[in-house]
Design brief:
Chain lengths: 114, 111
């Protein structure tokens, strides 16, 4: 099992460019998440999807859109990138049958917006 | 005020030391408390979890929860250089979809 995979690993964008971050999991989890991690801010939830076909905003959704393409894949789109979106982005999926909400994280995408 | 507060450190200790990492929280509904470990340039991984108050031990690691004080701790005994990482506390309540994370404490264990 590959677990949670993310592409690309690194990306540099210019202000105003768009891009899509891809995430896939092979653990048959229903719930998937997108976080950003910034120094001193910790992990902040951007969007999550409790099941295929549903998405909900998290703490910092502005400037982002998401698509839950199927049970395996959950993508994050930046329509018009801004320097404030420079961050490390993590995708995660959740173990559905534990009450403590264990989440499994991908390796991250390091995004720089110039 | 954030729901979960964690001292970001950094914390630097000699090999073999006992390490104490702590978080405080404000939401009394939290019942599940977790510690994630994140190595440099990697995603976080679950290290331990506890339910409600009490202690849980796993090898050199002990997690403590004091719900009356809204305070959780992670102790690392006989710390090793391989323990060098960022440790994030996380917590949630029954039925919640989301985890609430602390900012993480960066730990370096010096050989």
């Amino acid at each position: 099992n590959a677990g949670v995979t993310q592409t690309p690993k690194f990306q540099v964008l210019k202000t105003g460019q768009s891009m899509t971050l891809q995430c896939a999991q092979d653990m048959n989890h229903n719930s998937m998440y997108w976080y950003r991690q910034d120094p001193g801010m910790g992990l902040r939830l951007i969007y999550y999807s409790a099941s295929e076909g549903t998405t909900d905003k998290g703490e910092v959704p502005n400037g982002y859109n998401v698509s839950r393409l199927n049970k395996r894949e959950f993508s994050l789109r930046l329509e018009s990138a801004a320097p404030s979106q420079t961050s490390v982005y993590f995708c995660a999926s959740r173990e559905d049958f534990t009450s403590y909400n264990e989440q499994f994280f991908g390796p991250g995408t390091r995004l720089t917006v110039l | 005020q954030k729901e979960v507060e964690q001292d970001p450190g950094p914390l630097s200790v000699p090999e073999g030391a006992i390490v104490s990492l702590n978080c405080t929280y404000s939401n009394s509904a939290f019942q599940y408390f977790m510690w994630y470990r994140q190595y440099s340039r990697k995603g976080p991984e679950l290290l331990m979890y506890t339910y409600s108050s009490g202690n849980k031990e796993d090898g050199r690691f002990t997690a403590q929860v004091d719900k009356s004080s809204k305070y959780i701790s992670l102790f690392i005994r006989d710390s090793q250089p391989s323990d060098s990482a960022t440790y994030l506390c996380a917590m949630t309540k029954t039925g919640a979809n989301n985890l609430f994370f602390g900012t993480g404490t960066r730990l370096t264990v010096i050989p």
